[in-house]
Design brief:
- This protein is mostly beta strands and 137 residues long.
- It has 1 helix and 9 strands.
- Strands 2, 3, 5, 6, 7 and 8 form a 6-stranded antiparallel beta sheet that branches. A 3-stranded mixed beta sheet has the order 4-1-9, with no helix packed on it.
- A hairpin with a 2-residue loop joins strand 5 and strand 6.
- The termini are far apart.
């Protein structure tokens, strides 16, 4: 028996079969399962404190070691400044307690600065958001 005007069942099934498969894949995004196409979790990335380290004459210092210590738990994070004298290694994992931030470069040390945190249900934000530390001669 021959076909009468149109697409044979094999080709028609392939066409609709692929469309059905595509529709079922697209519909899986409607459940609560993880998906790469969902909006990013805004709570995932920790907030950071920007720390700038300068010499006594105002030059930014590359390679300075910056340490922030939680004043209650005594837990600390240390970062190293980049070629612009900046590190963002200090983050909200030290929150919500206040932290003490100090930098060293060679035998030079900065005065310690205190940073507080303002927290909501998602993040803790450092106050102030940027600290500039000056090495003492």
């Amino acid at each position: 028996m021959g076909r009468v005007g149109g697409v044979g069942m094999g080709k028609q099934w392939k066409r609709w079969g692929w469309l059905g498969l595509l529709a079922s894949v697209l519909m899986t995004g409607c459940d609560d399962a993880p998906s790469a196409n969902r909006h990013e979790d805004t709570c995932a990335e920790p907030r950071t404190l920007r720390v700038e380290v300068m010499s006594s004459d105002g030059a930014y210092i590359q390679g300075a070691s910056v340490t922030a210590t939680n004043l209650e738990s005594n837990v600390s994070i240390t970062g190293v400044t980049d070629d612009r004298g900046v590190t963002t290694a200090i983050n909200e994992t030290l929150a919500p307690s206040p932290i003490r931030v100090v930098a060293t470069a060679g035998s030079h040390v900065t005065r310690a600065e205190r940073v507080e945190w303002t927290c909501d249900e998602c993040h803790c934000t450092p106050v102030p958001a940027t600290v500039t530390l000056q090495l003492q001669d």
